[in-house]
C-alpha cells in the first residue's frame, strides 16, 4: 500500500512541477492587473485600462491551462506520451464542468492508468506503430471524456444546487458556525465546485444589500495562498525548490484574493495541505462572521479593504487564519528528501519509438 501511495505521489509531483509555472505566471499577471486597477463596490475587480486588460487576459489564459497541464502530466508520468493527450483533454473537461483541480487530478489518474492498460493489449504487428500515436490516445480520451461528462458532470451540478440550498438554511443559524462553513468551503477545493458554491452565494447576496456573508468569504479567499507563502518561508526545508518559488507567487496572489495560488501545494500533498488551509480559513471566516465584517465587492483579499466594513477585524481574521494554517501545515509536513526530477533535456522532441511492453 505504501508503495502504491508513493507512486501516486510521484505522479502528482510530476503534474504539479509542470503546472507551477502556469499558476505563477497566470496568477501574478492577474494580480498585477487587478492591483493597478482596484476593486469597486458591487462589481469587484475593475480592469478598464487596455494594457492591463491584456495582462489580465494573459493571466486568465495561464489559469485556464493550469488544470489541463496538471492532469496531462499526471497521465504522462503514468503512461508516458500516450497519456498526455487524454490527460490534458480530461483536465480541460474537468475545468469546464466545474470539477476544479481535484477533478483534474482524478482525470489525470484515470487517463494515465487507462492509457497504460491499453498499452498492455496484445495487438497484431501491423497495428503496433500506430498504437501510441493514434489508438491509445483516442480510446483513452473517449473513456475519460465519457466518464467526466456523463458520470461526474451531472452529480457535480446537482451537488452545487444542494449546497446552495443548504447554505440558505444555515444562514439563519449561528454566525460562528456559518462563518466556519463558508471559510472551510472556500479553502477546500480553491476554485472547484464547493468553493464556487460559497462564493456565488455570497456574491449573490451583495445585490440584495447583504454584505456580511461576503465578508467571511473575502477573508477565507486569501488565507490559503498567504499561508503557504508564509509556510515556505518559515520551513523552506519542507518544500521543493519549485514549491518555494511558487510560495513567492502565492504571496502576491493572496494579496489580490486569488485562492488558486495554493493549488500547487494542495495538489502535491493534499492530505497535509488541505486540512491545514481549511482549518485556518474556517477560523478566519468565523472571526469575520462574529465581528460583522462586510464586503461590498464580489472579491476577496486585502485589495478589497477600501470597500470592507470593520477593516480592523478583517485584518485580524486574515492574520489569525494565515498563522494557524502555516503553522499547522509545517507541523504536519516532513523535510523534503528528494527534489522532483527535472524534465530531461530533449524530452520535448518528437520520438515515435515507443515501448509497448
From TrEMBL:
The entry's cellular-component GO terms read: plasma membrane
Q: Does the keyword Cell membrane apply?
A: yes
| One of the GO BP terms on file | phosphoenolpyruvate-dependent sugar phosphotransferase system
Keyword Transmembrane helix assigned:
yes
Name the principal localization, coarsely classed: membrane
* GO terms of molecular function: carbohydrate:proton symporter activity; protein-N(PI)-phosphohistidine-sugar phosphotransferase activity; protein-phosphocysteine-sugar phosphotransferase activity
| Stretches assigned to the PTS EIIC type-2 domain | 8-342
Where do the TM regions start and end?
12-35, 55-76, 97-118, 130-152, 173-194, 214-237, 249-267, 273-291, 312-332
Signal peptide range: none
**InterPro entries xref list:** Bacterial_PTS_Sugar_Transport (IPR050864), PTS_EIIC (IPR003352), PTS_EIIC_2 (IPR013014), PTS_IIC_fruc (IPR006327)
Q: Which UniProt keywords apply?
A: Cell membrane, Membrane, Phosphotransferase system, Sugar transport, Transmembrane, Transmembrane helix, Transport
What membrane topology does the UniProt entry give? Answer: Multi-pass membrane protein
Q: Where in the cell does this protein reside?
A: Cell inner membrane
| Family matches, as PANTHER family | FRUCTOSE-LIKE PERMEASE, FRUCTOSE-LIKE PTS SYSTEM EIIBC COMPONENT-RELATED
Output this protein's name: PTS fructose-like transporter subunit EIIC
The organism's lineage? Bacteria, Bacillati, Bacillota, Clostridia, Halanaerobiales
Amino acid at each position: 500500500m505504501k508503495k502504491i501511495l508513493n507512486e501516486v505521489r510521484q505522479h502528482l509531483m510530476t503534474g504539479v512541477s509542470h503546472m507551477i509555472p502556469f499558476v505563477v505566471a497566470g496568477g501574478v499577471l492577474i494580480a498585477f492587473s487587478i492591483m493597478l486597477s482596484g476593486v469597486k463596490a458591487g462589481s469587484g475587480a475593475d480592469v478598464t485600462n487596455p494594457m492591463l486588460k491584456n495582462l489580465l487576459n494573459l493571466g486568465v489564459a495561464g489559469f485556464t491551462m493550469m488544470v489541463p497541464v496538471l492532469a496531462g502530466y499526471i497521465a504522462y508520468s503514468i503512461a508516458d506520451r500516450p497519456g498526455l493527450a487524454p490527460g490534458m483533454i480530461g483536465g480541460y473537461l474537468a475545468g469546464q464542468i466545474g470539477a476544479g483541480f481535484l477533478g483534474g487530478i482524478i482525470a489525470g489518474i484515470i487517463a494515465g492508468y487507462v492509457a497504460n492498460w491499453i498499452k498492455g493489449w496484445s495487438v497484431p504487428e501491423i497495428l503496433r506503430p500506430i498504437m501510441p500515436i493514434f489508438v491509445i490516445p483516442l480510446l483513452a480520451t473517449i473513456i475519460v471524456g465519457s466518464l467526466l461528462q456523463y458520470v461526474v458532470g451531472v452529480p457535480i451540478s446537482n451537488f452545487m444546487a444542494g449546497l446552495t440550498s443548504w447554505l440558505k438554511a444555515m444562514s439563519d443559524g449561528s454566525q460562528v458556525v456559518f462563518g466556519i462553513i463558508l471559510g472551510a468551503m472556500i479553502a477546500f477545493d480553491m476554485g472547484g465546485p464547493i468553493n464556487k458554491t460559497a462564493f456565488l452565494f455570497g456574491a449573490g447576496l451583495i445585490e440584495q444589500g447583504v454584505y456580511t456573508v461576503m465578508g467571511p468569504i473575502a477573508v477565507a479567499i486569501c488565507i490559503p495562498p498567504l499561508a503557504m507563502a508564509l509556510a515556505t518561508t518559515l520551513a523552506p526545508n519542507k518544500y521543493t525548490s519549485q514549491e518555494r518559488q511558487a510560495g513567492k507567487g502565492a504571496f502576491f496572489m493572496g494579496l489580490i484574493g486569488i485562492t488558486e495560488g495554493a493549488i500547487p501545494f494542495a495538489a502535491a500533498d493534499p492530505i497535509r495541505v488541505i486540512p491545514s488551509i481549511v482549518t485556518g480559513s474556517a477560523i478566519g471566516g468565523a472571526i469575520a462572521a462574529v465581528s460583522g465584517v462586510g464586503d461590498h465587492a464580489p472579491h476577496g483579499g486585502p485589495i478589497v479593504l477600501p470597500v470592507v466594513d470593520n477593516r480592523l477585524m478583517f485584518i485580524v481574521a486574515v492574520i489569525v487564519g494565515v498563522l494557524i494554517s502555516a503553522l499547522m501545515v509545517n507541523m504536519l509536513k516532513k523535510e523534503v528528501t528528494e527534489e522532483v526530477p527535472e524534465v530531461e533535456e530533449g524530452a520535448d522532441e518528437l520520438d515515435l519509438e515507443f515501448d509497448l511492453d
